[in-house]
Each structure stands twice: as structure tokens, then as C-alpha cells.
Amino acid sequence: MPHLTRRVFVLSLVVVAGLLGSTTHARLNRGEVHVWETQEITFQAARDYAHPYVDVTCWIELEGPGFARRVYGFWDGARTFRVRFVATAPGEWRWRSGSNQPDDAGLNFGTGALRAVAWTPAELAQNINRRGFIRTAPGGHTLEHADGTPFFLLGDTWLAASTWRLPYRGVPARPDVEPGPGLSFEDAVAWRKKQGFNSVSFIAAFPNWAADHRGATFANADGIFLRNAWEKFGHWAPGAQISTADGATTTGKDMHDEAGHRPFAVLEDRDGLADFDRINPAYFRSLDRKMQHLAAEGFVPFLETVRRDTCPSWAAYFDFNTSYARFVQYLIARYGAHNLIFSGIHLDWIPEKLSLSADTFNAALTHHWRTYGGLPFGQPYTTLIDSSTYQRFGHGEAAPWLTMHTVGNNPRNHAIYASIEELFHLTPAYPAANLEPYYTGWNHEINRPGGETPEAGSPRDVYFARAQMYGSVLSGGLAGHVHGTGAYDITTTGEPEGWRPFIWEALRYESGAQMHHLRDFVLSEGLRYRELAPASQDLQPRASATAAADGLDGWSFMLRTADRTLALLYFEHQAERPRIGGLQPSTRYRWTWFNPRTGAWAAPTTVKTQADGSLATPPYPADRASPMRDWAAKLVAVP
Questions:
Q1: Residue 487 carries which DSSP code?
Q2: Domains 2-126 and 535-637 fall in the same CATH topology
Q3: Higher per-residue confidence, 476 vs 353
Q4: Could you write out the DSSP letters of every residue in 213-271?
């Protein structure tokens, strides 16, 4: 059996690693693989199992330089099981297979060995993922690749991108690609990559969602809600739970893959309830292609399990902790050998009856962590959240699976910044980011700062998104930022537009093109950004007299290093010029204005603080090109 296992192992390496480099075959002939390159071992069980997803757990014990850990595998249909892993350092690596079915000769006692080699400098320049998976950087507030290269998250919200709505076609994007009808997954990735993005957020599966007669929000005869889906605009279904003024209800969006597969078997005699103990590997093979493409393009996806509305039926008809933990582990086993940020639940809202409590999810994710451990290769583990992960789950031992904090969804205005500052001051420090800020182009009541709904794509609409970029990061969200794209549901070709724009329209909004300016600003002094801490309390006044607490105008923000030699500032539209305190007394500083709309730096000027370490903000630059006159600035002490 070891000989057979070794033979299958090498064949699998050719298939998977071959996606990432043209030298794969030559290296495999020498028994070599690259570090941080996804490898795969394929096993064939010796017998059939009635419920392989539930009944079979397989793994390898993987050992290499500085690494010794069990890496779990996953069922991929019929008798096929796979284990995916990476070598995290150059050197000799060995593995031995095992399972909870000790008599199955196809799953146990296989062994293998390989030699991992480093990438050359030229190869590293081709794909930043070759620098290693992301992890918490020194200081605890930021992220970095395994080799110490800083990773500043610049993400986008494509929540339905796992489905047919953004189809993977296997055709490379044209160099001159622009978003338009018929947009493919490859086209969208190429467009955002050209704009400097390095991540997209999406939900892996929508088990109970379909465009059927039951309505977007639907509860069965037991009163159990099966879904609270996004509407399929222009399509109506009778008799559902939540109706419009004319008595009709929109049907839900269909969320199968490009071939029509759904993530779980469907119990048709149970109102379309997913059988959460019968997974459909064919659906996830489609997702494999998208994950592999993102890896090859240097992206670090934010991969989520399911949306919270699926889970009341999961808890009502299944052993939730065990069944949900099994699905979480399936995703980690299938995709944990990719560079990613993992989200245990898309908990964007916790409405009564439509969702489970945060405590219920925390219990299930803690059960997973205690049963299987976290991600085997150390990537960040968090959730998308309503308000903040700390407020919902706690910190440290209260949520032992959690390694990165987030805020999001509500509120999308000034009120969120106190939550970000609260995360920054936790001990031990975790990286933090705003994952659902203001969404450009989305007309919805929770997306109206100060009650205002600007025209989609207008300067005001784009400004709100930009204000949340800088306000979130300068409040302490130093892991980066996720851009709110109004077509997160992927309204696409063949569907009428509704509250949300078509995906190709949303991708063209100028706010997306301005995201990389944020990274350029924050990292303009290199790794010193890791030393920054919120210091907005030293701005007087912090808010203008007319600034609304639920708006996005009139506030100022500051990050500052402990030695007070570096500060980054941001002034919203209509912000008063504050007096800046907390600097070194009687010290000359270099002041440089930064235009967050264009990414342009002005010529620096020299200013000097008073004996109390304060100075007045210089006059804002003239900018007749935009009616939204927000500004950023950098202060550096002059030796």
C-alpha cells in the first residue's frame, strides 16, 4: 500500500502544483516542490461507505522543518479522499496517513516524502503568495506574509462569487479588460488586480437558497426559517412570509454553481431544506477552480462558510455543533492549503427568528476548534460581523478560535469608530479591519450616513466609501480594509437591476479605483506603520459643530507613534482644522498633504510645534476638481 499511495501522491502533485508554475514537472522528477505551493495527496478507500462525509475522517501526520501537525483531508465523491497541504520551509518533509476507519487499507499507513525548495527572487516577484501565508505581524495589529513582507488587506465584497453568478470560464482575461455584461470571474479578478486589490470576500455556500416558488424569506410549516435570501428582482412568489405592499413576495436568488450543482443534497419533501449531513463534492470542485485562480493571481481571499440565515434550520433538524463543525472542517481541509483569511460564519445581522445568536455560533466554532484545531498553516481566523467580533464573541479564551477581530455592517457611520479603537486596545493585540463599511451604489436604510442616499457612483457616494476607508484604518484597523461594492449579490446578465446595481456597474465606481491610495498612504513610511496607534483624542476639535454622529462629515482622525515622531491624519469633508496635540515640544516636523482622491502627495512644508507639543493644522489645499474636499496628511519629525 505505501507504494501505491506514493504513486498517487506524485500524480496529484503534478495536477495541483502544475497550476502554479511551468517548472513543476521538472522539479517533481527530482522529488522537489516549492514552499507555500499547494500539494495534494489522493487516497482511494478500500470499500464503499453509506455516508462517507459523516462517517470517515482521514488525515496525514505531516512533519518538516519546524512543523509537525495533523492535516485533515476531505471526501471528494465515490471512494476518493484528498489531503491538501503546503511545505512551510525548505528541507525534507514526510507524511503518514491515517483515519478513523482503521481497517481501511486505502486510507491508512500510506507514507511519502518530498523535498521543499525556496523560490528564486525572480519567481517571488511573479506572485506575492509565494512569500508565504499571512499571519499576525510583530506588535499584533497588522498582518504579514511568512517571510515578513507586510500584507495590507485591500478587499472587495463579492459575496455570491462562489456561484454561477460570476462564472469561471477557464479563459484568461484580456489585458484591456473592462467590466461589462457577460463578465467572468477571471475578468473581475483581473480588473480589481489592476486597481491594486489583493483580496475578495465571498461566501462558500448558500445551501437553502433557490429561485423557487417559496419566496426570498421563507419559514416552513414548523415555523423554522430556512432562508432570508437576497431578492431576485423582477420575480415574484406567492404565499411567502414577508410580503410587499401589493401582497407579493420576491423569490430568492438561485445560488448553484456553473453546472447547476448545489452544496448539499436537497430534501425536496422538506420544502427544499438542505441535508446538512450529505455534502455534494461536485459543487466544491467548481469552487476549487476559483480558489486556484485567486492563488495564481496573488489574491488572499476572505472565505466564509455560510450566511447566518441558513442556520436556524440547521440547528432545528441536525446536531448543530457536530454538523456545523464538520462543514467548517470540510472547508478548512479543502481550502486551508491556500493563502486566505477564514470566516467561520457570515454574521452580518442577527434578527430575531431569522438567525441564531452569536453565542450559538461561538459554541459551534469553539466545538470545531477543540475537535480539529484551527487552520493548520496559521492563517487568520475570524468572522464577518454585525458591530464587532469582540462585542459579539469576546476575546482570548472566550472565543479560542478567533485570531483576528473585525467590525462591520452596522453602523456605517461615525459610530463604528469607537468599536475599532476598542479592538485596538485589547490585550493581547489582534489585527482588526472593517469588513462591511459603506457600500458604493447601494440604496438601503442601513447604508445611509446621516439619512442621506446619494446618487450611485456620484462624488458624494464615492466620498462616503472613501471616508470609511481612512476613518476605519486611522481608528486602528491596521490590518487593512474591505471595500463595499453595492453588487455584492452579483446581480448579473439576464436579471433586472433592483436595489443593487449590476456587478459590472459596481466595479466601475471610482471608490474601487481609490482603494490602493489608502495602502500607499499608510505604508508610506514602510514598516513604521506597525508602530502607529489611535490618537484622535489629541485633535481639538475632533468634530466640527455641525458634524452628525450618524454621518460621515466633519470628523478628523490621527494615528501616532509612541515616540511622537510620526503621525498620519485624515480630515473628512467639512472638518474644521483642529489644533494637533501630543507631539514633541518645540520640534520641527515635515508636513505633507496627501490627496486621497488621486493618491498625489503635495510638496512638503516645515512646521514647528509649540512648547506644549501642539500645532495648528495648516490650511487645506485648494481642490476645485472635487466638491468633496477631504484630505490626509503625514507628519514626520525632522532630525
A1: T
A2: yes
A3: 476
A4: TT-SEEE-TTS-EEEEPPEEEEEEESS-SS--TTS-EEEEPP---TTS--SEEEEGGGT
Dist. CA 317–CA 204, nearest whole Å: 21
> Number of C-alpha atoms within 13 angstroms, CB side, residue 350?
16
What topology does CATH give the domain 535-637? Immunoglobulin-like (2.60.40)
Q: Which of 386, 232, 217 is nearest to 313 (CA)?
A: 217
What superfamily in CATH does domain 2-126 come from?
Answer: Immunoglobulins (2.60.40.10)
Q: Residue 300 in contact with residue 404, Cβ under 8 Å?
A: no
CA dist., res. 436 & res. 417, Å (int): 13
Rounded to two decimals, what is the model's pTM? 0.95
pLDDT tens-digit profile of 384-414? 999 999 999 999 999 999 999 999 999 999 9
User: ∠ at Cα 325 (319, 329), nearest 5°?
Assistant: 145
Q: How far apart are CA 454 and CA 464, in angstroms?
A: 9
The span from the CA of 359 to the CA of 439, in Å, is: 28
Cβ neighbours of residue 619 closer than 8 Å, sequence gap 6 or more: 577
Three-class secondary structure assignment of 578-598: CEECCCCCCCEEEEEEECCCC
Q: Which residues of 154-168 are buried (b: 16+ CB within 10 A; e: fewer)?
A: bbbbbbbbbbbbbbb
> Tens of pLDDT along 80-122?
999 999 999 999 999 999 999 999 999 999 999 999 999 999 9
Sign of CA dihedral 468, 474, 476, 478: positive
| 436/498 Cα distance (integer angstroms) | 20
Q: Could you please state the CATH topology (level 3) that the domain comprising 148-209+256-522 is classified under.
A: TIM Barrel (3.20.20)
CA dihedral 224, 229, 231, 237 (to 10 degrees): -30
**DSSP state string for 297-324:** TT---EEE--BGGGHHHHHHHS-HHHHH
Torsion over CA of 281, 284, 289 and 292, rounded to 10 degrees? -110
Domain boundaries, the chain: 2-126, 148-209+256-522, 211-254, 535-637
In the chain, the largest separation of any two C-alpha atoms, in whole Å, equals 81
* Rounded CA separation 463/618 (Å): 22
Cell numbers representing residue 274 in the block: 438542505
Residue with cell 481612512: 470
What does the pLDDT read at residue 496? 83
Determine the Cα–Cα distance for residues 609 and 475; give it in Å rounded to an integer.
24
Residue 120 burial (C-beta neighbours within 10 Å; 0-12, 13-18, 19+): exposed
CA atoms within 13 Å, Cβ hemisphere of 512: 31
Locate 381 and state its grid cell: 481566523
User: Residue length, the chain?
Assistant: 639
Contact criterion met (CB below 8 Å) for 259 and 169: no
